Amino acid sequence: MSTAKLTIDLDALVTNWRALDAKTNCETAAVVKANGYGLDAGRAATALANAGARNFFVAVAEEGVALRRALGAGPGISVFSGHMEGDAKLLKDFQLTPMINSLDQLLRQIETLPGLPFGVQLDTGMNRLGMEPGEWAAVRDIALGQGPVLLMSHLACADEPGHGMNAHQLKTFRDLTDGIEIPRSLSATGGLLLGRDYHFDLCRPGIGLYGGLPFGDAMPVVQLDLPVIQTRALAAGETVGYGNMWTAKRPSQIATVAAGYADGLIRAMGSGGIQLYAGDTACPVVGRVSMDLITVDVTDLAEIPAHLSLLTPEQTVDKVADAAGTIGYEILTSLGHRYARTYKG
């Protein structure tokens, strides 16, 4: 096969959700925004719904529409961006629950969708989305009079357990919501792992479901196998790729594989110490990653395989991300559309 193969293990996804759920005494939802972190939100959410997940979170209403079509009626679908202008029909027709972020959104919800469910997102210090404490104080009674189904916020530094911002945001969230008899949610994956004080009534893990940090015990969900197009012998002193960025220090065998930054394998990988694997044997990427091709030093292999693997149990999305100077989220969500995708489970 000339196309790279991306294998997505839905059983591992479900195992990760169950493992995170077991750490709480509250409901565990699932974040499936960005098309399920690039892995297909419909398939991911269907597998999780079959395992018992009853609530899902997406970024925008249009993602919620696609998810509702995949899931059918029943599971809850919440929208982080809230009630944007022009969203009313989508929110109503597809039973989506906006997380209201401002007074303007609250008024829009009351005026266009009175009586339909919504949540409220509060800004406890991240300064990204949600009502700030002063705005919440001004509209709290109005909002509560409309019967919101969830009060939520989002942690800025939950992947750093010792960071003082976590305790600050926890206190702020409690100050804003204690005494209100409405379900509350503060934590995604990182917050869930901080412990019970951060769990409240609902946790909403995202990256941990898909095999990423900070959930260090996560099972790998993706494997990426890249077909070898061609191999060539180089003499010591010959160079490889754009800009002559790599020079052979010995007689070398170079394999060219079919994938590149057009497939989400970002250019920075070429200088970051990324390996491709032939079974358990690591082979370094050499030269620059180009649009459709990556070159790999396979000199130490006794036999050149038909493909080399980039994402494996040995080299997770986070290891790839570290070497490329980014985060696992970017690696996952950048995986392109040219891969031949196979779903297990």
Automatic annotation (TrEMBL):
Molecular functions per Gene Ontology: alanine racemase activity; pyridoxal phosphate binding
GO cellular component: cytosol
PROSITE patterns assigned to the protein according to its UniProt record, in alphabetical order: ALANINE_RACEMASE (PS00395)
Keyword Isomerase: yes
Annotated Alanine racemase C-terminal domain residues: 221-344
Catalytic activity from the UniProt record: L-alanine = D-alanine
Enzyme kind, highest EC tier: isomerase
The protein's role, per its UniProt record: Catalyzes the interconversion of L-alanine and D-alanine. May also act on other amino acids.
Protein name: Alanine racemase
Organism expressing this protein natively: Tritonibacter aquimaris
